[in-house]
Amino acid sequence: MDTEKIPRVLVVDDEKGLRVGTGRLLEMEGFSVQTAENGTEGILLGTREDFDLAIIDMKMPDIDGIEVLRKIRKSKPNTVCFIATAYASYETAIEATRIGAFGYIPKPFSPEELIQQLNKGYSQRLLLLESEKLKKEREENLLELAGEKSRLNAIINAIISGVIVVNKTGEIVYFNHAAIKNLNLDELNIGDRYEEKMPQKVNDLIEEIISSEIKTQKSLAIQIEIIKPNELIAEIICTPVLHPDGSFAGVVLVIRNITEMKKIEIIKSQFISMVAHELKTPVAAVQGFLNILIDDRFNIGYEKQKEYLSRSVVRLSSLLDLVNDLLDISRMETKSKKREIEKLNVPEIIDNCIITLELEIKKKSIRIIRNTLQQECNLFADSNEITRVFTNLLSNAIKYNKDKGSISINIEENKNFIIARIEDTGIGMKPEEKDKLFQEFFRAKNENTRGISGTGLGLTIVRRIIESYHGKMEVESTYGIGTAFTIYLPKSYK
Amino acid sequence: MALIAIIDDDPDIIEASTLVLQSKGYDTVSASNPTDGFKKIMELQPQLIILDVMMEEPDDGFFLAQKLRRNKITTPILMYTSVSKTIGFEYAAGEMVPVDDFVEKPISPDELLNKVENLLKKK
């Protein structure tokens, strides 16, 4: 018998003597006893409280014992019930056990007989409680597991990388939506063979993992152009999944959309090869001359030698300009140069730019026309950067102008912007040239631009400076007539 | 002596190449863009064409080479390249690009003369 807990017994009997006698006997044996004097009371008590044991008299005036048993069993299935009767018959015993009585106690019974039966019944009760407890725990675990699983599902479906799990026999056993998207598949189903759905190169990797003798946690990765050209590029990482005991379970594939990253990479490498080309061009020219100058076989005269040297100097100084422009762009990109924001007067800055360009202006006999009405047009910005903008624009207006042409400069302001317009009477641009104007290294090449030097980065720098101040720039141009740049610079920059 | 056409947009390269070729007695003619180059080649029928890979546009030298071949000009073409892998195209001699040989800039006089001599001999 359980010593820690006192077993609780319900005695349902219409015979008072028996109720009292049984109660006393059981209390002496360490049971706690409650009694009911008829069927109605028995049902009431037996369904309200969870007794360990119940002894139910078969014959009662109101409700018979079988009905009481049925009701208690239904409400408290773990209460171990006994049927007691003086009119013992084989049929009633069968009927009682059929509807769930644990035992059958024939009346009259000896105390030993009763105690023995109840002890057996109580052991059964403890077993029932234990199994109920286990069942409950198991259910709770399952519930938790289901919650964990759906949470995991939600997480895996929410991530933008595709996930596919292939088991060791090559069947797809798990995937998320992003996998279908990143591989541009029409559909994917649990149970599909991976070879029928994956690109060949991915199949090779999965095959390699599945067939390899030694399974390590090492991943294999591959980049594949899913939609050409460069429309969808995916990176697929295949990793073997091992059971806790180290045996091989399958392969997990993580599919990332790396299209944007790849596009940036392509633009960068194109830029680098353009830079390399631009840097190499003057070097090649200078080296071409030096190869001739150093080689006695060519035996060129003094005048020619001087000409080649001075042409080399020109090429080297344009190379230097190019390197400086590239450094400026790089500084702008990395923002490594600290800005000194101060109050600037735009007409004054333009005047200073004109002074530095005076030699070029005189060389081509260009007339400068200032249409600015106001003497003051203030702007908060970095003086070096704004000077660079106007120097580059004015220098272009001179370089691409006709001899004896003119440049009109107009500065005005509205509530938010300083608007500067620089218009030349130069060679202008063809529409297709205008479209490429802001491309790095683009320089219009035609019969009119021969002999004009430049790095091809001037307007790139102008645009980057203006955009960094959240300003904008407009270009109008007519081939053979001239070009006008209008820039809008916000007055205050934060 | 053979007439060699040099098509390159860099006047300094034309100058140096011309001087090197003339030192060996070759006659030269030059053009600084694909359009003029095409005209001069059709008109003067040189024995060899030296063509820069990139003039006004990336790979326009390559397109001029294709245009010449389409016009049944079988004259050997020696292509000047600056960055061997330019934008978009990768070159292997003969494949894809209808030229006969390449010289990478900066040009060494000996390499240029050797290649010119070989191409003229082949013809």
Question: What structural category do the secondary elements of chain B indicate?
Answer: alpha/beta
The main sheet of chain B orders its strands as: 2-1-3-4-5
CATH-assigned fold name of chain B: Rossmann fold
Query: What's the CATH architecture of the largest domain in chain A?
Result: 2-Layer Sandwich
- Rg over CA atoms of chain B: 13 Å
Q: What is the number of domains of chain A?
A: 4
**CATH homologous superfamily identity of the largest domain in chain A:** Histidine kinase-like ATPase, C-terminal domain
- Low-pLDDT ranges of chain B: none
Count of helical regions of chain A:
15
Gross morphology of chain A is elongated
Question: Unreliable runs of chain A, pLDDT <50, ≥5 residues?
Answer: none
Largest sheet of chain A: 5 strands, parallel
Q: What's the helix and strand layout?
A:
The complex is a heterodimer of chains A (about 500) and B (about 120).
Chain A (H helix, E strand, L loop, with lengths): L7 E5 L3 H13 L3 E5 L2 H10 L4 E5 L7 H11 L4 E6 L4 H9 L4 E4 L4 H48 L3 E6 L4 E4 L1 H6 L11 H4 L2 H12 L8 E8 L4 E11 L5 E10 L1 H36 L7 H33 L6 E5 H11 L1 H6 L3 E4 L7 E5 H17 L6 E8 L3 E8 L6 H5 L22 H11 L3 E7 L3 E9 L4
Parallel strand pairs in A: 1-2, 1-3, 3-4, 4-5, 12-14
Antiparallel strand pairs in A: 6-7, 6-10, 8-9, 9-10, 11-13, 14-15, 15-17, 16-17
Chain B lengths: L2 E5 L3 H13 L3 E5 L2 H11 L3 E5 L7 H11 L6 E5 L19 E4 L4 H14 L1
Parallel strand pairs in B: 1-2, 1-3, 3-4, 4-5
